[in-house]
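Q: I'm writing up a methods section and want to include an example of the input and output format. Could you take the sequence below and give the corresponding predicted C-alpha cells, formatted cleanly so I can copy it straight into the document?
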Amino acid sequence: MRDSAGYELSGASGRSLAALEQGLHEFRCYIGDPVATVERALADSPELVMGHFLKAYLHLMGTEPGALPVARDAHAAAAGLPANEREARHLQAIEHLTAGRWRTAGRVLEDLSVEYPRDALALQVGHQIDFFTGDSRMLRDRIARALPAWGNGMTGYHAVLGMHAFGLEETGDYARAEAEGRLSVELGPRDTWGQHAVAHVMEMQGRRREGIDWMRANSDNWSRDSFFAVHDWWHLALFHLGVDEVGEVLALFDGPIYGKASNVVLEMIDASALLWRLHLRRVNVDDRWQAVARNWEPVAAAGNYAFNDMHAMMAFVGAGRGKAADAVLEAQRAAMDAPGDNAEFTREVGHAATRAIKAFRDGDYAETVRLLRPIRSYAHRFGGSHAQRDLIDLTLIEAATRAGQDRLAAALRAERASARPETPPVTLKTARANQLIAAA
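A: Here is the clean output for your methods example:
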C-alpha cells in the first residue's frame, strides 16, 4: 500500500489507510479527534507502523507529562514490527523524543525530510519541534527545503504553506508570511495553523484592528471542532487588549479561552499568559487565577518543559498558592540535573524567567529586572513564539517602571516603539519615555 504522497506503508489495508489519511488530515488542520481516528486504523491493522507513529506524535506534541507513557507504548508496539527505511527513521525520532532529546529528534526528521520531502507528518512534527526548541530559522528552512516537491492539488499542500508562513513570520519576513498564510487558508479553509500564522504577522506589526477583522471574519472555520481553537481565540484577545478593549478580553477569557476550565497544558499556557498581561496592566481579574492554578497543580512538578513552568508560576502566584510555586522551582532544580534537552531549556532561560515571575508578584521588581535582563536576548532557547515570549519584555518594562528605574524603563519603551508599532495606550507611555531620554 502507498499513501497519498506515494510512499510505501508497512502493515496497511485499504480501510486502515483511509483512516490513517483522515487522522493525518485532522492533525494537519488541528481539527476533529485524530487520536480516535488513528485508533480506528490500528484496530483494523495492528501492524500499521505509521499508525503507531502518529499515535506517539499526537501524545508527544502537547508536552503533557501524562501522555508520555502512551507515546512510549506506541513506540514499543511499533519497534517489533516490520518497517521500511523511512519508517525506521520515524522510529528513531520518537525514541529520542520520549527520552527528552528534542533537538536530536529534530535532526533525524530533518534528514528524513531531505530524502522524503513529501512526508507531511515528518515536516509537521519537525516544525513543531523547531517551535518547542525556539529554532526560528529551522521553522522556516525545514519547510523551504521541501517546498519544491509540493504543488497545488497535492494532499496537505495548504498545511505546508501554513507552516512555511509561520517560519517566515518568526524570521521577520512578514510580507511573504502573510501572503503564504492567506493562500494556505484559501486552499484549506480549516487550516488553523495558516490562520494563526497571519495572526502572528499582524500581532508583530501592531495591526490590531486588522487582526480583529481577520480572526472574526472566518471564526467558524478555525474554531469549529478544533483543538487549536483556544490559541487562536487567545490571538484575538491580544488584538483587543492592544486597543485597550479589556471588556472584550475578559469576555473571551470567560468564554472560548477558559470558560470550560481546560486542563490541557497548551490551553492553560494561553490562559496564564492572558491573565498575566492583564495583571501587568493592573486589571482586576477577580478569582480567575484560581481556576487556572487548580488545573496546573497536578502537572506543576513534572519539570518536563521549562516554558510550561513559567506559565504555571504565573497562575500559582496569581492565585496565592505559595506551596505550588515552590514545587515548580524545586522541580526545575531537579530538571537541570536530569538528562534531556529540558535541562538546557531550564538552565539557560526557564529557571530565571520563572523566578522573575515570582519576584514580580512578590513586589521585588528590582529582582525581576535583574533576572530578566540577561535572558531576554536569548529567551528563544526555551521555545515559544515571538508573540508568546513578548510577555518577558512586557514584564521587564513594567518591573523597571515599578522599581523606579525610570531611565531603563524609558529606554526599553523607546526600543519597543522602534521595533513594533503600538496602539494609543502604549504610545502615551512611549511619549513619556522620549521625554525622559531627551532630558538625560
